[in-house]
């Protein structure tokens, strides 16, 4: 049974040290599904008698399915509750993932990849709402914890995929993902019990489109949605460009690239831990503003050292605090948006996720358009994205520096 405590915080029957990892594990489905099969692309292409370029399209198919799913299930979560959707999402993800392992053609693989992402989004879209229910006005603290735990997924997924490939079958990757989702489904069925699963008083009675209308028309939301969008673009620019920058421009080995990639993931994790400790005292808006100033300085320095063609060590050193700043910016943008809604949390999460993955899909083509064979396009886009977040905060002024309401 759950009980309410002061500060609008919910104390669930399942201890937080178990509940938060469970919610994080649900959120981690997306990075695991995206990253774990990347080392197997060439093997999958061979098994389907096609080329790697065709198999690579499955990543775009997944992102498209995930975006459509979030747009669909976000408002549904606000109307029918979160529990039915997390059950549907995990069950649907497990079944379609099993189908992917049994696929015998690229066409079937692509269709199931879309359905896998579409149904899986039903489970992940409700997690921020659960975090908000638990932490109330301290949602940014809860989101930081979830993000901190979830960082393990993109760090470990490619390595796990490579180890599984060593066993000889790419299908084992999807069998493992299927088992992962099935285990989470069992945990949710027996362990996830929250007041919102039974309390219908705060559920939205508005239509599908009206929920989106409320999200986009609520005062003060757009600057923070724009900030989150630009943070996501900076993240995806890094993810897209880092292999080329490290291994082609700086001529570093794959092993060194993996270490540096892990270093930046570690910086993100530490940033989320730091944010979870101090955001309650300073508020999300001030944390966002301070991190934006920090990111602007480090991204400008990154642009300068590459403009001057300085040694790659400068780029490595500057990327660590830049990625850490982006981590703080992103989680506080999301928390600020979510705190503005009581009945439309799912819809707001869907908007955040769709914008994030939509802009992420554009990062690759934009980087390709500005290709120069150097790290300059990557550095310039990172700087422009961070500067854009600062401009969004100007539109949010004077609330940016005002202490968070207690």
From TrEMBL:
CDD domains: MFS_MdfA_MDR_like
UniProt entry keywords in alphabetical sequence: Cell inner membrane, Cell membrane, Membrane, Transmembrane, Transmembrane helix, Transport
Start and end residues of each Major facilitator superfamily (MFS) profile domain: 16-402
Compartments where located: Cell inner membrane; Cell membrane
Topology versus the membrane: Multi-pass membrane protein
KW Cell inner membrane (keyword) present: yes
Residue ranges of the TM segments: 12-34, 54-73, 85-104, 110-131, 143-166, 172-192, 212-236, 256-275, 287-310, 316-338, 350-369, 375-397
Stored PROSITE patterns: MFS (PS50850)
Family to which this protein belongs: Belongs to the major facilitator superfamily. Bcr/CmlA family.
Protein name as catalogued: Bcr/CflA family efflux transporter
Organism of this sequence: Shewanella electrica
Taxonomic lineage: Bacteria, Pseudomonadati, Pseudomonadota, Gammaproteobacteria, Alteromonadales
